[in-house]
Amino acid sequence: MARPRAIFACQTCGFQSASWLGRCPDCNAWNSLVEEQIDTAPIGRRGPPRTAAIPAPLTALTGGDEERWASGIGELDRVLGGGVVPGSVVLVGGDPGIGKSTLALQLLAALARTGTVLYVSGEESPQQIKLRADRLGLPTAPEAERLIVLPETCVERILEHIERLAPVAIAVDSIQTVFTEGLASAPGSIGQVRESAAQLVSHAKRTGRATVLIGHVTKEGALAGPRVLEHMVDTVLYFEGDRGHPFRILRAAKNRFGSTNEIGVFDMKGTGLQPVENPSALFLAERPQDVPGSVVVASMEGTRPILVEVQALVSPSALGTPRRTTLGLDPNRVALLVAILEKKLGAQLFGHDIFVNVAGGVRIDEPAADLGVAAAVASSFLDRPIDPHLILVGEVGLAGEVRAVSQIEPRLREAAKLGFRRALVPDSARRHLPPTGGLEVSGVASVAAAWEILF
Fold first, then answer.
1. How distant, in Å, are the alpha carbons of 72, 247, 254, 257, 396 from that of 99?
2. What is residue 44's predicted lDDT score, i.e. its pLDDT?
3. Pairing mode, strands 247-255 and 235-240
């Protein structure tokens, strides 16, 4: 019989070494290698034999629209692509206290209308879960009898209870607390997370039970554990937002059954996560009027246009190296736009601290906000406010040109619906736009042309 062998595995990236190292040579993390015991037995002896797969030509395979269960949470269904797919595995990550467990409990309470659901808790006691359910006001009879709570961390025992209860959906909170008896390493280690998730994923695919795995994140915001964990599941959802803000953004980083660009917006209240039907109106509700450095931009998140406020503050710096601080935007992109303003427009920004923020805790990754960011910085630098009824859309190139962006028509429709009267867009896109009712659209070919119109 083969004996277990000790290795040292990096808890950040999964790198393995025969001896302990102070610094991981793969990800350069310090003191991240932890000793683990691995089974050196042949793979065929570690479990029951599997049924051999049968090859088939593509023409013999059946396809079509997969069945979906509507959760009743509109924003969650949007991110998932229309609902929960039976047999799918969804991984939810986010900072502590941001609402992962609340969302999982609300989802299971909604799916309890379909049949029995199972909430596996490895961190909280049943009493704590009961208190949360009472605070959220869910579930109600007869769904309350179908929501089963299981405080267990051994994956083999969890699977035994699943076979006995036969639930339609399962939530595991969290995957870092689950372990398998086949490995001697501690729960939360690279090997334990990988093997435990593999057994749960295999069971979900074999039985058609929808499974939700809640995962911890590192201080950098990435899911803790092996990177292969994201490849094993069907959907990866990340919670974004600051716990100081009531808004929560649920973004799909991977989705085999829908778009990866969709986001869901929630409002964290005492009764749980409440979907926000009109995020643009919510993000612009407290926007100041006639204040320098405040600009509204239109961002596309999947098929949904969202209007957000970009704020900039430019002030003289007493430091040798002025500060460049951004929240909700790529700092490299903001530095590029500041360099364009200095080079193409002669703005003397090198002796100023520049702070740029997206209000509401939203993060914008697309370049369509470039024109708005540049206008916000220029507005604060000149101390001249921009028309509060103006919206800006456009990508800025290194030569100072304003480039066209995709899906500009739904952006302008959203702006017109919220009462905006003017729009500044790329000139190349302006020539092909149909008439927009109630919205005066102006085209600019360069940042200099936008500067002349705005200031």
1. 17, 11, 20, 23, 36
2. 44
3. antiparallel
